[in-house]
Amino acid sequence: MRRRRFPKSTSEEVSHDQERWLLTYADMITLLLGLFIILYAISKVDTKKLNEVASDIKKGFGLKVTSIGLIVDGGAGLLEDDSMEPKSPIFHLWERIGFALKNLKEKAKLKLGLAEAEELKLTFITPDLSSGDIVEDDPDLQFAFKQLADLSKGMDIDIIVRVQIPYESSIDKSKFQNSWDYHSHRASIIAEKMVTEYGIPRDQVSVQGYSVFQKSNEGDTPEKKAKDERIEILIRKKETIK
User: Fold this and answer.
1) Among 67, 113, 129, 130, which residue's beta carbon has the most beta carbons within 10 A?
2) What CATH number does the domain located at 89-237 have?
3) Domain locations in the chain as residue ranges
4) For the whole model, what pTM was predicted?
């Protein structure tokens, strides 16, 4: 008589199925271990780095960074104060100008900065500031001033124009009373263009003259000094006289 064959017992497979929870449990334990390692690693806060990160985050949201907050000992967190304010008109202008003049920044002809005191500074790297019609000979400056006039229209601001000429000590200034007079004169040529050709209100524009050339922080070599010839335009919220 032929013996009937029965399938082998599946007890081993059932056993493996019942032990799958061990894999999930092991994964959970591993994740918990990683969590505790991270918590231990950040238990000691680097105050300086945390302040820098908090400052960058505030700048990204257009908030004042004069007061970052209080770092709690032990890494409990960052307690913010009440100095958080929405983006100011000067900050918005800084954003718009930075976008509009992106090409000049890429060509290293423009440096754009925003100080905590709500002062926007445009630095145009341009040669031959001691002679000729500075704006007329530079299409990039013409484009920049047009953008500045359009973007700042209707804003209650003060615009200060000044020039930095590294070779000014070798220039004949006999027609001027002193270096202040000379630098103010060169800056006034630019300011007059901004008013008459680009429509910036005259009562918003003023000029400033240095007694001597002010070096930047980029070095003292002749090459870097030559590149230091520049126009500086400061934009501030108009101060009300009480």
Assistant:
1) 129
2) 3.30.1330.60
3) 11-79, 89-237
4) 0.60
